[in-house]
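Handoff note, outgoing to incoming analyst
You'll be picking up this chain. Sequence as last confirmed:
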Amino acid sequence: MGNTPSSKPRNKTGKRVVAQKIETAQKTNVLSLTEHGLEEIPAEVYRLTSLRTLDLSKNKISSLGKVSQLKELKSFNCDENVLTSSELAPLSNLTKLQSLSLGKNRLENPSNQAFPSLPPTIKQLKIYGNSLSSIPKQICDPKMKLLEKLDLSFNNLAAVPIEICNLSALTDLNLDNNVIVSLPKEVGLLKKLKTLSLRNNYIQVKSTNFSDSSNPQPIPASVFEDTLLIDLNLHGNKLSSTQLNEFEGFNAFLERRKKVKTKNLYGGAMTDMGVCGLT
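Most recent structure output, in case you need it:
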């Protein structure tokens, strides 16, 4: 017979399964408790002091409790829970953390919620699908010099702070589905930036007769000329490929991308050679 509403499958939410996974994690240092209906982190998890990978995604967790005790943690996924910014303080003490994902939680405007400082060891940070109206200054702190991949898609961001230039190792920046109208020239200081996605934002121009004072170019020339950018996605903005081709510096971007295409012609690593998602 199939499961009835009163007989939930133990392989998802049963306490015995959680206990078995925690026991196994003592040997593997890897623990996944995704989709277990958890409202808090089980106390037994904090005893796994050698744990390196922890996945608590798709639960109902509102507090990180004593997760700061997991000093060896390198990868932490807490997507799709109910965390607010003020509950993230324990993360500051995870001094070996390299990958952190907090997508689809309840993180809001940093002025309304206290956002903690982040471990400078982080290389990949995902905070997509929240309600941030500005990028927390802690993310753009100069100490975050190892951060390579940053995903802030599906928030309410209207602008990118000039402090973004502090992220000197950044190669991949995802700002899809926000309300961004332009980028600061400081993005051009991200010398290692290769991928920039700005799908479904509000980047548009009335005229391509650009002027720094009266009609600034929404994507500065420095972004095209001074970075390693080869992948740019502008799909869903009110901008045409014809207009984009008139942007100062855009030709430098096209030449760089053409070289990559030639280099990878026989390697199977072809990048999309369309005009940045525009028609």
